[in-house]
Amino acid sequence: MTTAKDIMHTGATWIPAHETLDRAAQLMRDHKVGALPISARGAQDRMIGILTDRDIVIGCVAMGHDPSKMTAGDLAHGTPRWIDSEANVEMVLEEMQTHRIRRLPVVENKKLIGMISEADLAQHLTDEQIAHWVEKVYSPSG
Q: Strand locations in the chain, DSSP E?
């Protein structure tokens, strides 16, 4: 059985909620990622959201805000989703499709150990699985 741990990429990095968006963009650049889980102030292992490069552009820059003054926590909205490292691929796909998300943090023993992105799915799934996932996540009707 292929698990979330088998298809994730390692090295996921937290960003504290109090950290500025310009620092978040620097971390994304340095780690070559497009998303960072946001940790609660003083609790590195408690996720309160996920910050994407798109969030920074749409929620800050395009609104005329200063990314050196806005924080990751300012853009943390909704309920963060995650998956256990031992979950099978079908569970991963179901979680991502149901919530129409493109990145999914992977946890083991309540600790962040990786992230699953579209690129990870493309490398590990069949064409049929990918096509179904794309239809569910990107179609207007879901």
A: 9-10, 15-16, 35-40, 43-52, 83-84, 103-108, 111-117
